[in-house]
Design a protein that fits this description.
Blueprint: H1 2-18, E1 29-30, E2 37-38, H2 41-51, E3 58-61, E4 64-65, E5 69-72, E6 81-84, E7 88-93, E8 99-100, H3 106-112, E9 116-126, E10 131-141, H4 146-160, H5 167-175, H6 181-201, H7 215-226, H8 232-244, H9 257-267, H10 294-305, H11 329-346, H12 349-359, H13 366-374
Parallel strand pairs: 5-10
Antiparallel strand pairs: 1-2, 3-4, 3-6, 7-8, 7-9, 9-10
Helix pairs in contact: 4-5, 4-6, 5-6, 6-7, 7-8, 10-11, 11-12, 12-13
The structure holds zinc ion.
């Protein structure tokens, strides 16, 4: 009926007049991490994913960070271990059941466990959007007794610090001691270095059986372990390996003047700049603590007589003392740099230019070669 309808309309009108309909705008949501406002939860979640991606949790051990595995071979303090971006941590030690460890307690946990292997799961989770990042990290603590290491060093010098070593001598060194398992790596690394020297020299009588190309692998695996130890024998072997692989450094351990001088000399040839005479201190013939491969020894001998050493004007990279030895790419570069440096100092421009040209694309000596090739005297 019209009358009733009219009454109803009027009631509806009165209601909407007093409570006008407003299209409800949702309350903006502030990002809990940066405070920026977002229209709704979907927009906030998208923002969290894009602008605040979940960080993968990391572990720092000493100066290394973000690796999947760490070996601790020397005494450490809790400050050497740091958990980064983790909200929780689970640890299984020596294959036992996992336990929960608060991330900030992990350094002390690892320290107190002594020599052990830990499988660590670091979790970084966020309640705001239920995201989670995880990292699985293996930490092996194997710290040998100082007396065991001293004994191994002594045996290494006794068995292997000789001019002509053989595989038999390396085996005798290996068998001369059965160290606790934590020191086995150290013994193995020193043996690997000796095998690397034999592999590099390829002398039939030495009993070496690996192909020449494998000497770098032996050196690198030895270096990975020995670099952790600041003991005279270990640091000398690491410096020898670095010299062999053309990783020259001015900060070489004292006590091995020949090795130190050789590193210094080649350091001056790895950047653009003038060529200098090598500094010679003392007249020591070998690094008393370790076997040195014959090519390296020949380079040191030449450095003593630099710039007028035998073979300094032979166009091939060989020296008279290395004629029957295979040369690595690193040796060839070192020998050419040695000859080019000598020629520059002696004013033999043509000869220097040929050697420098061969070094143009070398990772270590390229810059130095370019510098001299562009100098007015040679160009
Ligand atoms: Zn934000």
């Amino acid at each position: 009926m019209p009358t009733v309808g009219w009454i109803q309309d009027s009631a509806h009108d009165r209601l909407t007049d007093s409570f006008p309909f407003v299209r409800q705008k949702p309350e903006p949501i502030a990002c809990p991490l940066c405070g920026k406002a977002w229209a709704d939860r979907t927009a906030l979640l998208a923002h969290l994913g894009i602008d605040h991606p979940m960080r993968r949790p990391l572990l720092r051990v000493g100066t290394r960070v973000g690796l999947d595995g760490y070996e601790l071979r020397t005494p450490f303090t809790p400050a050497d271990i740091e958990v980064i971006s983790a909200t929780a941590c689970r640890v299984s030690t020596n294959g036992r059941n996992e336990v929960l460890v608060a991330p900030e307690q992990l350094p002390a946990f690892v320290l107190n466990a002594g020599n052990a292997t830990h499988s660590i799961k670091l979790l970084n989770s966020r309640a705001e959007d239920d995201r989670e990042a995880m990292a699985s990290i293996e930490v092996r603590v194997a710290i040998p007794q100082a007396e065991t290491l001293a004994n191994i060093d002594e045996l290494f010098v006794h068995h292997l610090a000789h001019d002509r070593i053989t595989i038999r001598m390396v085996d005798e060194f290996r068998r001369s001691v059965t160290p606790e398992s934590s020191a086995a790596d150290y013994l193995g690394a020193l043996a690997d270095y000796a095998v690397g020297v034999l592999t590099k020299e390829q002398r039939q009588v030495s009993g070496a059986h690996l192909p020449f190309s494998q000497f770098t692998g032996k050196f690198q695996s030895a270096r990975r372990c020995l670099v952790d130890f600041s003991r005279p024998v270990a640091t000398a072997v690491v410096a020898l390996i670095d010299f062999n692989l053309n990783n020259f450094s001015r900060s070489q351990p004292a006590g091995f003047p020949e090795l130190q001088n050789a590193h210094h000399f080649y350091c001056t040839l790895t950047g653009a700049g003038k060529t200098q005479r090598p500094v010679q201190s003392g007249n020591i013939v070998t690094v008393a603590a370790c076997p040195v491969d014959a090519v390296t020894a020949a380079i040191w001998e030449a450095l003593k007589l630099f710039p007028e050493f035998p073979g300094c004007d032979e166009p091939s990279p060989q020296l008279p003392a290395t004629h029957d030895l295979p040369l690595s790419e690193f040796d060839i570069a070192k020998l050419r740099a040695l000859k080019a440096g000598a020629a520059l100092l002696l004013g033999k421009q043509m000869f220097a230019r040929d050697q420098l040209r061969a070094l143009r694309h070398d990772a270590r000596f390229g810059k130095w070669a370019e510098y001299h090739l562009e100098a007015p005297a040679l160009s």
